[in-house]
Amino acid sequence: MVFTFLDLGFCLNFHRNKKKVSVGSNNCAEIQSLVDALSAWKIKTDNYICRGTVSENKRNFKCSIDIEDCLPENIRNYFAKKATEAGPNCFNTGLVFSGLLPNLRHSTSEEIGFYMNSELCKKRGPEEKPSPGDLGLISMVGINQDRPMVYSGQHAFIYLSEDFVYEKMDSRRTSPFTIARKAETLKSYGLNPDESADENKIYNKINREVSYYQCVSVSQYLTETPNVPEELMSLWNKMLVEESCIEKFTMDRTPLRASSIKNIIDVSKALTSYLQEIKKEPGKYDEEKSKFMIGSLQMKLKSISSALLGFVSEKKADPNLSIFAADLYKSIYGKSK
Predict the structure, then answer these.
(1) Does the structure show a pLDDT above 50 at 9?
(2) Least packed by Cβ within 10 Å: which of 48, 65, 156, 314?
(3) Taking a C-beta distance cutoff of 8 angstroms, is the pair 72, 240 a contact?
(4) What is the mean predicted confidence (pLDDT) over 144-165?
(5) 93 and 186: one domain?
(6) Distance (Å, whole) CA 65 – CA 80
(7) How many domains does the chain have?
């Protein structure tokens, strides 16, 4: 598999086979810059220093390097890969590869907004430089009396450096998980990479801005604060199993069984019952981790419901799936679609 992007006369050519991922370029300084960015990300995620060095005169390029060793462990299996079904999108890519979600699937802008506003993520200030592995979020904002209000997320990516980002442009099957130029990503959403955030805003009009978030992974968060009600942890673990099934369906065409969807509906109904029960014990609900996990489960259910309705419209799954998709929607929203 080979793909290329061009800019200012220079090109980066990525090549992937079963054994390794390599990148070639006529610009040795640029390829070294990419390796340095990936190395910084690798240290942050895996606590491992990769030993990649640029070699010359390979693959008809002036410089070439095998970057497999410099890709974070959770990136290797997916780099340059395309989904077999529509679903995984930019929001999900940002959430998964920053450790906030475990599996590839469709994610809504509401879901990524939930995590960015949770205690797991800290928004960097306007003068604070992003760090490799930060989650970048381009949002539509309205400026009214100098008070910004976020209307909706537009695009998410993983920040690598001032030159590069890791992203999936959209939910289409033809869109791979890849490295892109940060400047081109920002420009595609009407942002000038050479201007400050304030210069990119148009007052009293809806406009876009990019924000960066430093997040801790959900696994780290749960490890550091282990006190979770048993019933809630059980629902959480059941959802993890079914999310894995949805990833296998979207990435490898593993059949999505109706039983998996039924289990997700059961989680939705059980979560509703749980919320009704804890209203009788307000202290249990007020615990921060419980509130986060309940909110996270609700966001997961909404995103999965949206994805299932999409699968049904494309007639990609079990004939009974439409019934289960409708039941899931009703269990979440209390009404039919």
Answers:
(1) no
(2) 314
(3) no
(4) 76
(5) yes
(6) 16
(7) 3
The two three-digit tokens of residue 264, written as one number? 């997700």
pLDDT at 215: 96
Residue 187: is its pLDDT beyond 60? yes
Domain hosting 291: range is: 225-333
As a whole number of angstroms, the distance between CA 279 and CA 264 comes to 23
Residues 86 and 214 in one domain: yes
Structure-block tokens of residue 213: 């978030």
Helical (H) or strand (E) element with 42:
helix 28-46
Its pTM stands at 0.86
Domain boundary residue, one of 180, 203, 218 = 218
Q: Judge contact between 274 and 264, C-beta under 8 A.
A: no
Separation between Cα atoms, residue 151 and residue 173, nearest integer Å: 27
Query: Is residue 249 located within the same domain as residue 177?
Result: no
Q: What is the side-by-side strand order in the sheet with 121-123? A: 121-123, 206-215, 135-144, 147-159, 164-167, 178-181
pLDDT in tens, 229-286: 788 888 898 889 888 988 988 888 888 777 887 888 888 888 888 877 777 776 655 5
Same domain, 207 and 247: no
Cα–Cα distances in angstroms (integers) from residue 15 to residues 73, 80, 98, 162, in the given order: 18, 9, 24, 23
Question: How confident is residue 6, by pLDDT bands cut at 50, 70 and 90?
Answer: very low
- Are 213 and 245 found together in one domain? no
Domain check: are 115 and 171 in the same one? Answer: yes
Number of CB atoms found within 10 A of residue 200's CB: 17
Compute the radius of gyration of the chain from its Cα atoms.
21
Tell me, yes or no, whether 68 and 86 share the same domain: no
